[in-house]
Amino acid sequence: MKRALVMGAGLVVKPLIDHLTARDDLEVRVATMNVERAERLLAGRPRTSAGLVNATDQESLLHEVSGADVVVSLLPANQHILLADACLQLETPLVTTSYVSESLRALDPLARQRGVLILGECGLDPGIDHMTAAAEVRRIHGEGGRVTSFASYCGGLPAPEANTNPWGYKFAWSPRGVVVATRNQVRYLDEGRIVTQRFPEYFASPRTIEVPEVGALESYPNRDCLKYIEEYELEGVGTFFRGTLRYPGWCETWHALHTLGLLEPGAVVAPRSGFGGFLDARLGPGGGPRRGRIAARLGLGASHPILERIEWLGLLSDEQVTEAGAPMLDLLVALLERKLAYAPGERDMVVLEHHLGYEDDDGQARRRVLRLVETATAGDDSAMARTVSLPAAIACEMILDGKVDLTGVRIPTHPELARPILRRLEKAGLAFRLLEER
Predict the structure, then answer these.
(1) Contact 63, 54 (CB under 8 A)
(2) pTM
(3) Residue ranges of the alpha helices (H) in 299-343?
(4) Strands (E), 136-276
């Protein structure tokens, strides 16, 4: 009997648990700070257990990893380094869905030396996007073509009928992760020119992507994507871009929140105060309604949608939100989580597109567009949960079955990983469609 250790019991873990517990030759243990939720997800399932673990305690991690044949982590990305250290000590493979940090990447020589695979970025974005992009590039190269431009766009959104609030967004995964991700520095390649932008500069001019039956979406750059040029075997490409998708209005609103000081890491809401009081302090002396003063600070008309979003969220309220003072980001995350929630029965949606420009074997300029659109009822079996956790679950199975010979710190672009994971995802109903080729 083999044993899989699942670290974390968050919003996207259930499809992974469903997948792994379907095997009758596998014990599954979920280690988390939220044991009650883990026990609820495991109720009635044979060969399972749940336990409390502190992911910042190395001894606790070593205890949990001991005896596992594979570890899959859905913990926050900043908690993976200690877990990876424990896995290396015990020579146990690790799979995560998070971006590979520099500190994790630095473990690559030791992981290779010990014959251990640390597989990161094996979720949706990052994950399915990497695998499908690398596979499509190999296909074009195999046909004698040469890719000249690549752009990828991905977002988790409310399905159109569930897009019912002024923000055009609802949370199907970690609210803090969404907020923190807005502050990343970005780099991409635009017709041979490296573009570097800092927050909030890149929110000033989002791209527009038209998705049938969804409508116009806006996209802003996703992190520093230049490192993936080599991973995708696209050395010499002229344009390389990875973007995040949102409904229109998202970028301008986050730009406004920055201007108002709501996103400063060190900002604190005063004791016995509210969001409105925080804004008063930032706006400085002046009379008139708070909304009008904010409009003046932002240079907006009185009826601009940004003001509607700010007021709808409750940021103009004088209601007390803290007794002793608290970080603004913590309070903002809690507010967003409460207000931007899915109602029972509503559907979430994942949209992922690849746009490739290339020259065929005759030197003719061609274009290929591929799209994945997945919808599901929001909650434990949401579209976000399925697309994030199923790739990781399949990778775990492949490792357990001895079908992966790779070692070191990797992402799933290698054919030994990408091809079988994509085939199994297609059987689960997650497959790209070729939308356009000309």
Answers:
(1) no
(2) 0.94
(3) 305-313, 328-339
(4) 146-158, 186-190, 193-197, 207-211, 215-221, 239-246, 268-269
